[in-house]
Design goal:
The protein is 44% helix and 25% strand. It is α+β, with helices and mostly antiparallel strands. The strands form 3 sheets. The chain has a 5-stranded antiparallel β-sheet with strand order 1-2-9-4-7. Helix 1 packs across helix 2, helix 6 packs across helix 9 and helix 7 packs across helix 8.
Length: 236
């Protein structure tokens, strides 16, 4: 990764990126400029690791362009994706508040540009502007709710339900026909399973006439059938 200082022409872009961070949304511009005083931009290529789980936290990352996946992995190499962060998202904020190490690993999914704010400077600015603490608590609460939702998905729903939910969410946000942005292996990591199961499930949906798959694009043909599966109860 290559670090660079923020050029004058990129200052407004950096300010706008900070404005999209949930706990900085209502901060005064002077406060944001204070945060940017010692900030740097960096570029990460696809597959480049920003940090690994268990490493000390060196600062806050804000995504300017691209996408970064947050994940944990087991000793046998299996991964669970915790989230995918895009422009305007903050990465690595949890250890800034509790003083611990990184609770997950972060890797660029695409060529990405990020803003990096050193830990010492971030803490200094927050101590100088205590009004930011309330917003930070709200942002952390939202993060916890997202993680609780992930736990529910993985523990209470079978893989076909998770795939159906994913397809319905994509269709709702992007239209009935959309491009699958991830490989089956990457999608499997998000859904808490393995590539073969995702492939098998998509083929099952296709054969049932619920979806159509062509050249990396998926068209949802029967959202009612997917919805019925997505809402089904699983007995454990």
């Amino acid at each position: 990764m290559g670090y660079e200082g923020i050029l004058a022409g990129g200052m407004m872009e950096a300010l706008e990126a900070l404005r999209r961070v949930l706990f900085l949304r209502d901060a005064q511009e002077q406060t944001l400029r204070h945060l940017l005083q010692r900030s740097r931009t960096l570029r990460a290529e696809r597959g480049e690791v920003l940090f690994l789980r268990g490493e000390p936290c060196h600062g806050l990352y804000v995504v300017l362009e691209g996408a970064v996946r947050l994940y944990n992995s087991s000793a046998n190499g299996r991964e669970q994706v915790i989230g995918i962060e895009r422009a305007g998202s903050a990465i690595g904020e949890l250890p800034l508040f509790d003083g611990g190490n990184q609770p997950y690993s972060a890797e660029a999914m695409t060529a990405s540009q990020l803003l990096f704010i050193p830990r010492e400077h971030f803490v200094e600015v927050f101590h100088a502007h205590p009004e930011l603490m309330h917003a930070a608590l709200r942002a952390l609460a939202i993060r916890v709710r997202r993680l609780l939702h992930l736990v529910e998905e993985l523990s209470l729903h079978e893989v076909p339900e998770r795939v159906a939910r994913y397809l319905l969410t994509q269709a709702r946000e992007r239209g009935a026909c959309f491009t699958l942005d991830y490989t089956h292996a990457e999608l499997a990591a998000q859904l808490g399973t393995v590539r073969e199961v995702v492939t098998r499930t998509l083929n099952r949906f296709r054969k049932a006439g619920w979806i159509e798959i062509h050249n990396g694009q998926i068209t949802v043909l029967d959202p009612e059938a997917l919805q019925a599966l997505a809402c089904s109860e699983v007995s454990r």
